[in-house]
């Protein structure tokens, strides 16, 4: 299980650090705002009402087994909705 209160920060970190050919720049404020907006759209920032699991493993051929493979499974108990956030990048 993953602490749902850390979800927006994890998303912001993924955005800020980018992928194989990105360099972090700026102060990260824009990335944090976007991450909070994504969480707000998904579950209304009701962190206490979601259950989250984060997976960095290769569970489908779509992933290439590199550092940027991330899957987040987010279950909103209040609205009974399941969401999946999946990202990867290649060298």
Structure explained in plain terms:
The chain is of the alpha+beta class and 91 residues long. The protein has one domain. Helices cover 29% and strands 22% of the residues. The chain contains 2 helices and 3 strands. The protein has helices spanning 7-17, 29-43, and strands at residues 50-55, 70-76, 81-87.
Strand content: 15-25%
Report low-confidence residues grouped into runs of 5 or more.
none
Q: Please state the structural category.
A: alpha+beta
Q: Quaternary status of these chains?
A: single chain
Supply the number of helical segments.
Answer: 2
| Mean pLDDT across every amino acid position | 92
* Largest sheet descriptor: 3 strands, antiparallel
What is the β-strand count?
3
C-alpha geometry: flat
Order of helices and strands: HHEEE
Count of all domains: 1
Alpha-carbon Rg, integer: 14 Å
Helix content range of the residues, please? 25-40%
The strand line-up of the biggest sheet is: 1-2-3
How far apart lie the N and C ends? 29 Å
């Amino acid at each position: 299980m993953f602490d749902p209160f850390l979800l927006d920060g994890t998303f912001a970190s993924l955005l800020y650090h980018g992928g194989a050919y990105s360099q972090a720049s700026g102060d990260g404020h824009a990335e944090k705002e976007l991450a909070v907006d994504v969480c707000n759209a998904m579950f209304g920032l009701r962190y206490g009402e979601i259950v989250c699991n984060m997976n960095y493993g290769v569970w489908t051929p779509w992933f290439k087994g590199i550092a940027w493979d991330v899957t987040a499974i987010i279950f909103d108990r209040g609205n009974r909705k399941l969401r999946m956030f999946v990202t990867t990048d290649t060298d």
